[in-house]
């Protein structure tokens, strides 16, 4: 497997935990983890190699009280970018976020405080989002004279629907608490540490076979972009590979000999 050279990362703090779970922490708390171009490049690098480096699950976190304040507005102001410059910036964001969504490594985001603008674009590229009572979601681009450039038109619209997405962009509406879960912005709301719960979720996911996780965290997204006809075909091909993997034989045998856990309703 490829080795991840942690010394190449400064805006991201990388930590390897048990069972191939890696914690990837946005590490500019004094800037509320705003996404400058260096951070985006580090995300591209990490999520490009992670699928081949034995990363079973990536837990994405932000240091400090806020997950992520979105685009680094100071850098954007100082650089005084041309349209072409900023288009290329956005294409790097897409490179990073597409690697996350389609790369096959499950990404669990631990969210606290502001998850706004590009921070929401980043969070919406994760497969699972965990929030708590401090977490809030918004798209302040409209008020800043900006537009989303990191995939929100696609991913946030997928989560909340077109009408809510447009309302969030036009009015800067903030969603928080249980309502945010009900809308689909997060799947879990917890009291206290979102990182602790994200780690528990990651640990559970890491018990699955890697090829199953790869398929879940790449095929569902790819198939969503296909027609139903082509998607059904792709699903059959993926299932052909995954459902006959040699490592699955032991799990099937355990079911057959009744030693495997049964699926039961929650108590
Ligand atoms: C930043 C940024 C940033 C904070 N870029 N530096 N995003 C926004 O419009 C969100 C802008 N940020 C905020 O609304 C607030 O900063 C927060 C709610 C996130 C946090 O509030 P607070 O009171 O804890 O912090 P603060 O005092 O506002 O900021 C602390 C420092 O972080 C300060 O720097 P300092 O050097 O003066 O100490 C801020 O300048 C810095 N900071 N947010 C740069 N975003 C691909 S297109 C994507 C489009 C977008 O994402 S638009 C951006 C939307």
Describe the structure.
There is one protein chain. The protein starts with 11 loop residues before the first strand and ends in an 11-residue tail after the last helix. 48% of the residues lie in helices and 14% in strands. It folds into 2 domains: 6-206, 2-enoyl-CoA Hydratase, Chain A, domain 1 (Alpha-Beta Complex); 226-256, no CATH class. The chain contains 12 helices and 9 strands. It is globular. Helix 10 (210-224) runs antiparallel to helix 11 (228-242). The strands form 2 sheets. The chain has a 6-stranded mixed sheet, with helices on both faces. It has a 3-stranded mixed sheet with strand order 5-7-8. The chain is an alpha/beta fold. It has helices at 37-49, 73-79, 83-102, 118-123, 141-144, 152-160, 162-171, 177-183, 194-206, 210-224, 228-242, 248-256; strands spanning 12-16, 21-26, 57-62, 107-110, 114-116, 128-132, 136-138, 175-176, 188-190. Bound molecules: 3-methylmercaptopropionate-CoA (MMPA-CoA). Residues 30-32, 34, 66, 69-74, 90, 93, 114, 116-118, 140-141, 144, 146, 148-150 line the site of 3-methylmercaptopropionate-CoA (MMPA-CoA) (1HE). The site of 3-methylmercaptopropionate-CoA (MMPA-CoA) (1HE) has 24 residues, from helix 2, helix 3, strand 5 and helix 5.
